[in-house]
Amino acid sequence: MGIGMATDLLEAARLFRQGCDGGSALGCSNLGLLYAKDIGKDPKEAAQLFRQGCDGGSALGCTGLGLLLVEGRGVDRNPKEAARLFRQGCDAGSADGCTGLGLLYEEGIDIDPDAKEAARLDRQSCDSGNAGGCPNFSFLFDEGIGTEPDPQEAARLYRQGCDGGDAFGCIHLGVLHEEGIGMDPDPDPKEAARLYRQGCEMGHQDACGWADDLEGEN
Question: Is the pTM of this model over 0.85?
């Protein structure tokens, strides 16, 4: 982390702390986000701040605490409580809360699996502008989970996620192009390689090798 970035984070933390101490639930939640990801990566402090934000009505706080509860970071692992908090965050407008709850329903993590509810929540997240929710939703269309298989709609949603900066959206769209599913009947390895490379540049290491393989063949 560069000196300038570190200084900016510390200043942001100071301002969020000031807001939190003044009763701002969003200030507490944003400070929790910094502790979870940037400042010393202190999940226990992050959990306390997320809970304070959530109790004050911040959707971000509820969703952030839910993520920590699923992972068991800074708190005891508790997917059932995470589901409740994701629901609270989702109902309050957090697209990430909808995505998190959809994943729990899709995988049946400490709750009864419900593919249709997972699809509904992922659509809600995607429609709210969360790039990460679109590949989740498109995967359900791709596999026909909780909805009728629709490779063309899956491709459209993968594209939406990819264009929004989600590596998995690019990678899944690359697979469809490589196999010629949901678009032109003929596979398009060059477009697949381009999309894998895009996923690679977003940090997905496996995609780098897939791009190398296809680029070597063409």
Answer: no
Tell me how far apart the terminal alpha carbons of the chain are, to the nearest angstrom: 38
DSSP collapsed to 3 states, the chain: CCHHHHHHHHHHHHHHHHHHHCCCHHHHHHHHHHHHHCCCCCHHHHHHHHHHHHHCCCHHHHHHHHHHHHHCCCCCCCHHHHHHHHHHHHHCCCHHHHHHHHHHHHHCCCCCCCHHHHHHHHHHHHHCCCCCHHHHHHHHHHHCCCCCCCHHHHHHHHHHHHHCCCHHHHHHHHHHHHHCCCCCCCCCHHHHHHHHHHHHHCCCHHHHHHHHHHHHHC
The confidence score (pLDDT) of residue 143 equals 64
Token pair for residue 162? 């990819």
Is 115 in contact with 140 (CB distance < 8 Å)? yes
